[in-house]
Structure to design on (277 residues):
């Protein structure tokens, strides 16, 4: 069985990097008589727009992709995300955090901390709120919740095996290399890490095909799968499409938007050629 997905956020136009990712996943599914799903990662409602979502459907259809409908929207799944948070909360693995970004930067760069360490989510959280408030009793409804990574890893008895080149991740290292990541955001209910893991599991995704920029986040996702008793799919992190200066493409880079090429008369095959497929 082969089920993969492309999960864009409707926060801007899809560019050549998205085209590559979606086409690659779609081609791989077709070659294995599998299923290609489209999922709309619209958790961050403050940045998502219906017109960008409509453009995603239009661009992907134009590229020749098809997928089963209706598609899953993260914005419909908050109860599911809260249910999983509650499981982690009841295991004593979450705690509320009231630090601002500036607080975290200041605490992480205090002289006794040495050079601030960076993990998949930026500066590693220095742990200020970890023991500040009790993580027992009812789960707070409207709070930032962090995963206590040291406690979480103490529950994982075997290494995380998922890397493409056969390397393994030792849970013991994660408190130092990843830290206490955010699993619930105040404005969105859940964080990307939690929602993506639950969505992939609930959709039966067997193969996650996505950009190299998300490779470091995968150790967080596999940790959550272990804690929540979910299967770990196979992960393939593909090369990134870069501009002529070597920078990876961004949503605001309209010049490389699929829509821009379409308007200029490009064909889907030309887009395939441009991304090296
Ligand atoms: N929505 C994420 C993004 O646009 C992708 C999530 C994933 O593939 O895991 O970067």
């Amino acid at each position: 069985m082969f089920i993969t997905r492309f999960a864009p956020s409707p926060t801007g136009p899809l560019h050549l990097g998205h085209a590559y990712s979606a086409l690659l996943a779609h081609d791989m599914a077709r070659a294995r008589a599998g299923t290609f799903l489209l999922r709309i990662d619209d958790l961050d409602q403050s940045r998502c727009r219906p017109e960008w979502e409509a453009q995603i459907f239009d661009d992907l259809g134009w590229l020749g992709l098809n997928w089963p409908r209706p598609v899953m929207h993260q914005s419909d799944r908050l109860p599911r995300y809260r249910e999983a948070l509650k499981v982690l909360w009841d295991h004593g693995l979450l705690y509320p955090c009231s630090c601002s970004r500036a607080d975290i930067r200041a605490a992480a760069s205090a002289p006794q901390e040495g050079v601030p360490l960076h993990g998949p989510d930026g500066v590693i959280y220095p742990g200020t709120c970890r023991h500040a408030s009790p993580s027992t009793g009812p789960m707070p409804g409207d709070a930032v919740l962090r995963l206590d990574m040291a406690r979480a890893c103490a529950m994982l008895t075997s290494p995380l095996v998922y890397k493409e080149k056969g390397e393994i991740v030792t849970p013991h290292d994660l408190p130092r290399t990843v830290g206490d990541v955010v699993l619930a955001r105040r404005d969105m209910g859940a964080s990307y890490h939690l929602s993506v893991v639950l969505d992939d599991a609930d959709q039966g995704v067997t193969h996650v095909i996505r950009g190299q920029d998300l490779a470091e986040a995968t150790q967080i996702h596999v940790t959550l799968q272990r804690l929540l008793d979910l299967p770990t799919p196979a992960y393939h992190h593909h090369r990134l499409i870069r501009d002529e200066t070597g920078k990876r493409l961004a949503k605001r880079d309209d010049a490389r938007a699929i829509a821009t090429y379409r308007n200029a008369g490009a064909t889907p095959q030309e887009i395939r050629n441009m991304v090296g497929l």
